[in-house]
Design brief:
Strand content: under 5%
Number of domains: 1
Distance between the termini: 79 Å
Number of helices: 4
Helix content: over 70%
Largest sheet: none
Order of helices and strands: HHHH
Number of strands: 0
Structural class: mainly alpha
Amino acid sequence: MEFSIVEIIQSMLSPALMISACGLLILGSNNKYSMVVARIRALDDEIRKYTFPAKANSLSPEESARLKNLYMQVSKLQKRIWLIRNVVISYFIAVILFIVSCLLIGIMHLFHCPLHNLVFSTFLPGMIAVVSGAFFSIWEAMKGYHIIEIEVTGTLNTKNT
């Protein structure tokens, strides 16, 4: 069966579109990763202010409550950063698999060898990696909301005392 150049390019575009989509997802995830790292660093700076040796023994009840809140947030943010890392890794694995799919399609058409099963066996895991990244992203969003609840609850409790 003879394929035209246009048909070959069209068959290679499906994985290429997924590469582009994953690129956008990676960009957003990397941005989120950077923001969480910045938040962890900011909280660590605030923790250091409260735990400075001269001040650590003379904290007011409000400062002690804030310090406890900060430690809880950092702990939760560490779990969140792990999830975001998994999101990014999943999307990068998908990109690699989609690139391999594109190359296999090109090789299949160029050398007229039947690699349909191999193409499918790289494209399908790529799609599974995208779904995996999406599930990690949903999990991470739920964790992010919980961290905001901790911050707001801690701030309200401090103001009410």
